[in-house]
Design brief:
The structure is a homotetramer. Chain A is elongated and about 75 Å long. Chain A contains 11 helices and 15 strands. With about 350 residues, chain A is an alpha/beta fold. The two termini of chain A are about 45 Å apart.
Chain lengths: ~350, ~350, ~350, ~350
């Protein structure tokens, strides 16, 4: 951490800051120039609040030096993390894994028709929600455990792994037998109680960026998971909130190469939530792969017009098959392949 | 809802949209002009997804007409809601209620010294957190129920009501005997499971705006609470995320008069979280009252330099007393008074 | 335009709004439902301020129906615009045109080395700035007309067209003999005086999106150019300002398919300004082409470490050549080709 | 400037960065810790691009230490600047100066009726636009010099100073005899050519914050004016663009105390443009004064319903008079007075 004092800061102000740093456990290096004094603070603590220093008298500005994350940083695993899954699938390797399926599991027929279609088109993981807390108590709330069972059974039938969203700690144990990857939604990116419990699980976690979260905050949440002992973390861009209103969110494609530079963790993209509109999903899916995404999460529904949730952003099966063909052309440009 | 078709939309496209609306339960009025066809859809449903229509062929744009909230709208109670509390305090009336106290309850001594100071300065409600999920498992996590007991005891000693944040459904029953107002934090503004349970409680709820939430979304979350049967809802502005980085968040003071126009619910402000820096709390507290806020939530600590959390945004007791004096000057400009 | 009145709006309030609309030149259709009255206003005017209606008593909300632009709308030219340039190059056709070169023209040697490299790699247009107003009066301010002459000469030598930024009305006549495309920078997107003059010019204009401009505002500025008589307008995404601070701006790749849906004008991308960092230019250039961009604008410098401006976002010639090879793989996925 | 190298950065990478800094004219201090090397660079240059260093191999992050502005910084004039105007009015002193008047000068009658009303209510400066570039070439474009003459004449009649917006360099000489303060609009905040010329003028300049500009960027533009020799600079908050759509812009009231901390320049507020809606102007004007604004800029029109521009955000004269009475109550809370 670097603390720049105001020009003309009094000596006792400088001493007060030094004392504060020492109390916080830092070793302090002082450098006094012609115009101002600059303090360097070195130490092992990462969980401090820089504002404590910013509000001290005489302080001009404070900068953290080293990123406050350790385990997620690129230098921890310079070669990059490959999350290994059943059936030999790896996320973070040469293959761009595509995870596809409906927003919610609605019925056996709906899931089988969708699952078969996405498997035929080349998807490797089946996605589907079992818990859907909705704003109206009369709306469809998800099938719960019955939905998870269907996901697992459908996945086995079509040789697909299973990913599904976990929303509360109490759902972890329930989901464990059915899913291959736990998905944490954007609203729970900073639900530290949930992250703490998922840190103890021995299955991969796909962590979505919150709509108001910086990339650094996404990495800090991933650090929380890894600090808990779960090193199989997959990150996911799904759009941030900006002033542009045409799309629900603005998908920040540049987060893909940025995460790859800062971290060793696989970085994926969800163009369905990232745009919220079916007609923008394919362009943004292509853009994500072209920018280097390690995997995609795409909503597909056998009959989007009848979907019980998010039908407007679900692809028709034939649109998904066409998209997969386009991705097969693009992937070699970044040294990758689609299944 | 109004659906504008593209210029030159085919007749079958128009029919498809009409059919879709009828299936959704709407009554449809069609108006065909020289350049385009416009459809008006009237009906009782509020829980639909406008994007379902936006993605239909031939549709240019879709607008909701009536706000999707009913109970929180101004017209439900044109005279405004006054949330009545013990001891005769009302939020939403002539008096601007000030709620003050530490970020977290840390000890009996800390709470008593702070509570006495804020009561003497004129605060009517004691605030303090009992649960503090933190990014580091080694950081202070809050005192839990022991903290709640201290809050209640301290409140009784200094004639202060008690407000504290609830973070999970399981905490509701635990907190019920101790608090007068449940506070829902910005991260939980759209935790619909939690809101559903708080809708059943017969104590007031103070709901904070999420950092990426529009005013409409804040009102929708309040609608959820009211639909559950709890009409004693208090709203709170605490800053939104913008591109400006000098402050943690940008406090949207204009949300105060906007909520007052759109809704009958009391609208309050939290300048401590809204700015994140002690030296900006007093100006923004004054601005909030001048803009018409019904109450303030202010962090005060008897010794901010030693605070276990958020010390940088906590006022010293003497700063708080000075602020209260300033507010006493300002309040009459908006026809209000401070205690 | 649709005006929804408040529930319970008085009849004289409705009449006042109708009178106001009639004075504005609209034809009004009234529809009174069980809960509220809705007014539809139809007419030829586009240059009105909806807020005039929003602030009338009894008005709940106002929606524009038809987009306020006519000439740039997709329906004006459903087949899409192809901007035809010398040498047979078209922007908006099957070929993705790449425009490349240094931020500023600095010297004959710098321009020739860069120009030769980008031409060899397949660029079709040479970019370079001649006017550089800088925050320090001691910084390099651009070569002015001498720079324009070099651009033209270098372009002829390597068979490249020329694009350069125009910043003031007085520069138009000066630039006319030298450039094939006028570039309007993000800061001037709403400089209506400049746009008015460029509307009279018979050379294409590439209009960049402002960093705080919505897509609708970009289209409105294009409408201004077209209304002035210049139909050869090319749009360009170059990043918007968001809360994310890792990159200078957040490049909104989704603007590419959105503009293609709303308008017939070609939509291009500038990944150099869109990211501000050399190591993010190639991923975002690839993403732009994968999302359907009609052309790219890329900063390349023969020696970026010595560049007088924007060196940090300029590619090395060998990086540019590699990028072009990658784009040649990607373009067929969207039915396009690179030169 | 502080440059933190990656953990494990090679020695030649460190040397390359040091060499680069030395070439840029900096003196370099090196500090090598257990985990990483940190370089401190000290020097007089302020007009460099930190990204040049960020993209060097082995660099983790770069921080500017001292703010890149010198003349506008608080330490340049710790006691604060008072801009002295004719008639003894000071902006930045004990009095909160109110500048009021119509968006545009439309006619002698309109200006006299409005000017008399705002003078009676206590305004000290008359505002009014003479140049109005509009999106439609058929809309009212402002009265030009005739409007400036009316402003001056009306100001003299009612003992009001005059402020008006300058949009192009060519208008400066024309306006000089008529105005007491030049206003620079949000769109021109970074029009460095215009700022350079205004730096040479010996009349005060009121500089508005751009809708996408950080507070630091506003101060940098002010630095440009001061570096040109014009020390009478007044800053103005008028709203920034955020995701909230209910208001045109989100007025950042916290910018008022922040500018007062960082700079000695007076900081004012424009609640008319800051909100864009008449019914929000008074609350935001009150909030601005309560937060410490040195002056206000308020749009008032004798007949807003007939205004040729921005009628929706113009106050009626009686609303303005009421607002002035409210401000007289609030100002003493911050040790100020309204005329």
């Amino acid at each position: 951490m670097i603390i720049a004092m105001n020009e003309g800061a009094a000596e006792e102000q400088v001493q007060q800051v030094i004392d504060h740093l020492v109390r916080m456990g830092f070793e302090v290096h002082r450098s006094t120039g012609a115009r101002q004094t600059v303090l360097g603070a070195v130490g092992a603590r990462v969980d401090f609040d820089v504002r404590e220093l910013e509000v001290l008298n005489g302080v001009q500005e404070v900068h953290r030096i080293s990123a406050p994350y350790k385990l997620v940083g690129r230098s921890f695993r310079p070669e990059g993390t490959r999350v290994k899954l059943r059936n030999g699938l790896e996320i973070g390797g040469d293959q761009v894994a595509v995870m596809a399926g409906p927003c919610s599991v609605e019925s056996r027929e709906q899931l089988w028709r969708t699952g078969e279609a996405v498997a035929q088109a080349g998807a490797k993981v089946l996605r589907g929600g079992a818990f859907k807390p909705r704003s109206s108590p009369y709306s469809f709330q998800g099938m719960g455990e019955a939905g998870l069972k269907l996901l697992r059974e459908c996945g086995e039938q079509f040789n697909l792994l299973v990913i599904s969203e976990v929303m509360e700690i109490s759902q972890i144990a329930l989901m464990l037998p059915y899913v291959d990857i736990f998905q944490v939604g954007a609203r729970n990116m900073q639900n530290f109680n949930l992250l703490r419990e998922l840190g103890k699980v021995r299955k991969p976690v796909l962590l979505k960026r919150g709509i108001a979260a910086t990339i650094e905050e996404l990495l800090l949440s991933a650090e929380y998971l890894m600090a808990g002992g779960n090193y199989d973390v997959i990150l996911c861009e799904r759009g941030i909130r900006t002033f542009e209103t045409y799309t629900r969110n603005t998908m920040d494609i540049s987060a893909i190469p940025i995460v790859h530079k800062l971290s060793h963790l696989p970085m994926t993209a969800d163009p369905s939530h990232g745009t919220g509109r079916r007609d923008k999903v394919a362009p943004m899916a292509r853009a994500s792969v072209a920018a280097g995404a390690d995997a995609l999460l795409v909503e597909v529904h056998c009959n989007p017009d009848k979907a019980l949730s998010d039908g407007a952003q679900s692809l028709y099966p034939e649109q998904f098959a066409k998209l997969m063909d386009e991705l097969r052309i693009i992937a070699p440009a970044v040294g990758r392949r689609i299944a």
